[in-house]
Amino acid sequence: MSSRPLKFTKTGYRGPGPAHPTNLGPVIGTIARIGARVQRRKSLGVFSTIGRAPRLFRGWLVYSATMMPFGYLSRQDTELIILRVAHIRGSEYEYDQHKDLAARVGLSPEEIASTALESHGFVGRRATLLDAAEEIVKNKQLSDLTWTRLAGVLDERQQVAFVMLVTQYDGLATALDVLNVPVDEKRSGSQ
């Protein structure tokens, strides 16, 4: 049991939130600091929170990296999917992080903003991906029609990768909320 003071709100105890990188040990603390620098943030709450459980953090980091940035889907499609999941879930943290990443991989401000609209406005392949992502988040399943549409734009390997990406970021949105991870503050000079 931790000897640090508990954080209480009007509704009771809120999860541990991010640890200071110096409390994460040399390896995870360094990864958290590097991640924050790459993301142009003062700290990276997702790393500094999950990093409280070192064995879990290492596995999660490798697992996450196999989807983004080293996944089977294009970086632009991956970022659009993550943004749509973040919007549907109401995950301010995920949305804030990934809108910047989406811009870095070449998505326009209009494309990024459209992921947060009730009707995203995409057509074709991207519409299929965003509609399927939304259906998974809302229904925890895909209809036969949506599977048919998805199979028309993704091969079987990509279908598995797509479902794992959507459910990873759906679950991460839950974890970030339950663990009380606030949106990271941007470094000076970052947009």
TrEMBL record:
MF (Gene Ontology): peroxiredoxin activity
Entries under InterPro entries matching the protein: AhpD-like, CMD-like
Source superkingdom: Bacteria
Cleaved signal peptide residues: none
Record domain Carboxymuconolactone decarboxylase-like: where: 54-133
Pfam families: CMD
Name of protein: Carboxymuconolactone decarboxylase family protein
